[in-house]
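Morning F.,

Quick status update on the modeling queue. The single chain you submitted on Monday has been processed. Sequence for confirmation:
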Amino acid sequence: MFNAFLVNVLPVVIAVIAIAVPTWLGMLQTRVSRHANNIQPLLGLLAEFRSASFHDQHDYVCGRLQQEHAPSGGVRGLPHDAKEAFCNVVYYYQSLATLTVLRIVDEEVFLPLLRYRIVSVWQAARPYVERERELRGRDGSYLSAFEELAGRTAELPHTYLHDRMVDSRSGRWWWTRRRRWGRSRRTA
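Structure tokens below.
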């Protein structure tokens, strides 16, 4: 009786293992590949942040642009130096937004790190972008990926990065990531 049971159950157990192991390895490989996609943009991001000129332009856009130039002319109405700073900073985040929309990079890697910067740049750029959209008079999609990225970033709690670091130390990172933010993003 026991031998008959083994003869019937053992092939099923072997078949389940034969399916489960490659499936698990495939999921692991997918995760590794997804993280590999983040490496090159992350290196580019870090290279840009090492640039003093980028920080100077960022500070200018967030701090002095609205004081020195009214948004009534849109982006096209800015003088050359102001437009150069605006384009370098804002289009940098627009590129990041496009990479996240196309799912080339994982927004959960970048958004917590750049939360303050993304939100502050969008707040400074918004009047110019809205006026530029009016001047263009078309579909209003000018810098819409950056606007969406800024909106999603603003929804993050200011403690998100700190909470994630604490969770990673405790081994709960995967579960809490899905529970706090990731699951709602994926189901939306």
